[in-house]
User: Fold these one by one.
Assistant:
Number 1:
Amino acid sequence: MVDREGERSMAERRILNLGIDLGTSRSVIACDNGVRTFISSYVGYPKDAVSRRLMGKEIVFGEEAIKNRLALNMRRPFEKGMIKYSNYLHDKPEEFRQHKETARHLLEHLVFLARREEPDDCHIRAVVGAPALASTQNRKSLLEITNGIIHDVMITSEPFAVAYGLGILTNALIIDIGAGTVDLCRMQGTIPTEDDQITLTKAGDYIDEVLLGLIKERHKGVDVTLNMIKRMKEENSTISDKGETVTATFPVHGKPTLLDVTEELRQACRAIVPETVEGIRTLVASFDPEFQDLLKQNIILAGGGSQIGGLAREIENYMRENLGSGKVTKVEEPLYAGANGGLMLCKDMPDEYWDELKSTGKQPGASQGL
Ligand SMILES: Nc1ncnc2c1ncn2[C@@H]1O[C@H](COP(=O)(O)OP(=O)(O)OP(=O)(O)O)[C@@H](O)[C@H]1O
Ligand SMILES: [Mg+2]
């Protein structure tokens, strides 16, 4: 059997299902052939002929790029969960074009890692996570980078993908704490609409900036980069008052010096709590009054930021003070929860759904057709 393109028919072709989470900090892919992997969302391009020789390739991804960053022009293609400069299409078209191209390189690489030995003509379907309230333009840009790499694409809100993967479809509020955004999504047994979701931009990157500022303020002459701060935070992050003292060695006037950063770390990690609880309040207050308590008792944290020690307890305390009560838990696999859910959604959608998506171009949850 031969289809329009002269290839094997859909019925004969292997369908590869993917769940993809293109993150500001990490990009994750889960595939129904068993591959599950992630890379740091950094892409490096050799600066000159010597660095090209050193690297032996034209594009370097993830940790390898970070390690060799002095020889590379580095790009982090996503910011606040979307392709960088997406909101400055007219003011900075060249920067946007470059970052879009880089996002495409990253996606291509992830799909390459997932495909393994799959036949060249396999049909690739993917559910790609985006911030809860990504604009129509942002979703469109995301869709465009998948052209030629993925055959059928559905863009969905990242916390919805998490909820779907956990099988939690009603009376729950998912909070995905990423690097660029904190995404809140209320589940009430249907595909969430705009009213069910909130995107906040004080997330992991914001914690890093606050922490850098606090450490520089307290320890004059300290010389640290955001990258060093982020690493230190990930190794030690805690919000609890009962935690141990946290120290870090950073150069001060050129000399490695042991610094006590316990209080700065705690303060910086706490910085995202008030706004997050305000987000919870908005979604709870506009919920059916009979179910508001159920929602407050079922707050689920996901994303890399959910690994901050004591964060669930801190949010509970803050909720108790401001909303009367609250129960917060964390997902078991914060790194893979979004991609896993995307993969499940991808596999569960019937062929007719994908056909409809293709013919109408209308993505679920988008305010206007794309
Ligand atoms: N152990 C940890 N403690 C505290 N924060 C952590 C830890 N591990 C990762 N993070 C932070 O989590 C954030 C990354 O989380 P995640 O991988 O979910 O984000 P992302 O999907 O790349 O970002 P976004 O969803 O905003 O695009 C970063 O800010 C990172 O520093
Ligand atoms: Mg994310």
Number 2:
Amino acid sequence: MTLPILYNCPPSGNCYKVRLFAALAGIELEIRDIDLAAGSQKTAEFTALNPWQQVPVLQDGEKTVIWDSQAILVYLAETYGKHDWLPSDPVGRAKVTQWLSVAVNEIQHGPADARLVKLFGYPLRYDDAARASERTLKIIDDYLSGHKWLAAEHPTIADCAAYPYLALAPQGEISLESYPSLRRWISDVEALPGYIPVDQ
Ligand SMILES: N[C@@H](CCC(=O)N[C@@H](CS)C(=O)NCC(=O)O)C(=O)O
């Protein structure tokens, strides 16, 4: 059987969302690394896979190509029948979707952008990212003080989408010290069977 191919970059939190979910859900992928620093995402061949010239991209067979980490999580959960990770009832599905949106909006423009500046020197405004992080982390911490997981009574792809850039916030010099419920949730994700860290 041919495995789905994940076009990946090891330090990318967006790629880590997919590797983490695959590891937790027991889905095997072929990993192909793309060297972003060398500009390999800008080749004609890669641009044909993803016009946005970004990783992750998932290629499954001859015809199926999915870009965007959230979309890949949904695709894998559906394709492999991982229904616990992506509920199909309207409320359950909507609750997962709202956190997938938080992952690409509030979490991206807060801790993920701060990490891009501090770790990779991206020309973004660090002060804006730090201010956005404070609001985002506070809201998520408050939420998690009353909920064990983000979208359900059990882990879902929402937790996989949110975890990487929240757990890696200190790499962007965003401290998690003041957010005890967020730190409890991070420990709970890290205790799940099959968990892998970002550098694995
Ligand atoms: N919304 C996309 C964003 C993907 C994204 O921003 N990827 C970054 C790596 S984390 C990238 O490939 N950047 C290309 C570049 O910096 O040229 C997703 O969630 O997958």
